[in-house]
Amino acid sequence: MIHPDSVLKFSLGLKGLSFEIGNQHIQIEQGLSFVDSRSIRYGVIDELAIEKMIYFIEEIIESKPLRNLNISGVAVTSDATMTQLSELFFSTKKQISRIELEHGFNDFIERLSYCTSQVAPDQLYIFTYFVFVREMMNHLRVKEIQVI
Questions:
Q1: What's the topology of domain 4-147?
Q2: DSSP secondary structure string, the chain?
Q3: Tens digits of pLDDT across the chain (148 residues)
Q4: Full-prediction pTM beyond 0.90?
Q5: Residue ranges of the domains in the chain?
């Protein structure tokens, strides 16, 4: 049984990021727009943009107190963007394992231009969200994300 105080609750917004575990709450003022503004050039997500996203996201994760959280391996979110991501890559699943997420991410990378053409230009942050969730799973040892 997973103790509720060790489940990571997160929200990744354009203007800021929020993480909560037990009674610890971490608010980060740099959101997805910050990552986008430093990664995406000319409104195009390509391999270089993904590499830059990974770099900036790792900087955010590594430089904040997120590394010290005692996470059970489960993270939950009610972000609408996670629901959209699940619709695009995971058959609208409500529970996504690290392995499933990695397969979906690899599919995204292999079909980058097709995937990015499936959303409106002002919705490209969905893919920044995807990269952030992947890096969060890797760096914070999250094994499963639940959409609530």
A1: Nucleotidyltransferase; domain 5 (3.30.420)
A2: ---GGGSEEEEE-SS-EEEEETTEEEEES--HHHHHHHH-BTTB--HHHHHHHHHHHHHHHHHSGGGG----SEEEE--HHHHHHHHHHSTT-SEEEHHHHHHHHHHHHHTHHHHHHTS-GGGTHHHHHHHHHHHHHHHTT--EEEE-
A3: 566 668 999 999 999 999 999 888 999 998 999 999 999 988 889 999 999 999 999 999 988 788 777 788 999 999 999 999 999 999 999 999 999 999 999 999 999 999 999 888 889 999 999 999 999 999 998 999 999 9
A4: yes
A5: 4-147
